[in-house]
Amino acid sequence: MPRSFAITLLALSFCFRVEAADSQEKVVLKWLGNAGWEIRLGKTITLIDPFLTRKDRIMDAEWRTDEDAVLKVINGADYIFAGHSHHDHIGDVPFIAKRFGSKVIGSRTTANLMLTAGVEKSQLTTIKGGEKLDFKEFSVDVIESRHAVLQRSNRRQSAPLEEITAPWTGPILGKNFVEGGSYLYYFSFGSRRVLNQSTANFLEEKLMGLHPDVALFADGHQGYDLKSALKTLKPKVVIIQHYDEWRAPFSQGLPESNMKRAQRFQRDIAAADGQIKVIIPDFFMTYTLE
């Protein structure tokens, strides 16, 4: 092969690789408070655990979403991923799904709560961990996890798993938002990888082979070995979530005590691996993956 022709082929190959890299649309993440995220890739809008009502449940009263609060923030949703089924993760999902025709991905419990709330069965994808979901714009690995260790009467304890096994006719009460299983989502947007942890725990043996560019970590790590998890995952960036006071409106801002808690977690991550960039977001902060 003539040298000039080989050089031309090499140059063309390099240009193709550069154009291919440049053709990847930006992935823009926006923190919605608590464990909520909006991810935009071109015209596609993906939500994770969107909760804008920001109030506690009353166990024996009908749950009602603050629709005005939701629509101030959410103007569309193609997909909604539920990390688990507590009300501060999926309480607003039925309203959003019905309003925008969103596809909802979550546990059997999430699916049954959606059906009870009137979401169409065709909109639902039920998961149990281990699935690889391929969509036109991205793909997602579903990874079994576990809920954070809870603090009860100055004691740490793991709550027993509760599930909703069938839909019913009638309202959804506050007490119906049981955990239903917890899951990680490992998103692949072209060559970009994002790992979402909706609650502060892991099954560490399930983390092998995951190497996210960005890891969305719930505040706290009492239930797992943080240093070991970071050594396995090797994330470039960790964004701390689920550290705010989710029962209070956004207008009240981020309490100092919550910020101090997030800063402790930030220091723990830095102590485990000083190469990781750690971000404590403010409400509606955006982070762009080029």
Describe the structure.
By secondary structure, the protein is an alpha/beta fold. It has one domain: Metallo-beta-lactamase, Chain A. The chain has helices at residues 3-22, 67-71, 87-90, 93-100, 108-116, 226-233, 256-272, and strands at 27-31, 37-41, 44-48, 79-81, 103-106, 124-126, 132-134, 139-144, 150-152, 155-157, 183-189, 192-197, 214-218, 237-241, 277-279, 286-289. It has a seven-stranded mixed β-sheet, with helices on one face. Strands 7-8-11-12-13-14-15 form a seven-stranded mixed β-sheet, covered by helices on one side. β11 and β12 form a beta hairpin.
Task: Detail the topology: elements first, then pairings.
Layout: H1 3-22, E1 27-31, E2 37-41, E3 44-48, H2 67-71, E4 79-81, H3 87-90, H4 93-100, E5 103-106, H5 108-116, E6 124-126, E7 132-134, E8 139-144, E9 150-152, E10 155-157, E11 183-189, E12 192-197, E13 214-218, H6 226-233, E14 237-241, H7 256-272, E15 277-279, E16 286-289
Parallel strand pairs: 3-4, 4-5, 5-6, 12-13, 13-14, 14-15
Antiparallel strand pairs: 1-2, 1-16, 2-3, 7-8, 8-11, 9-10, 11-12
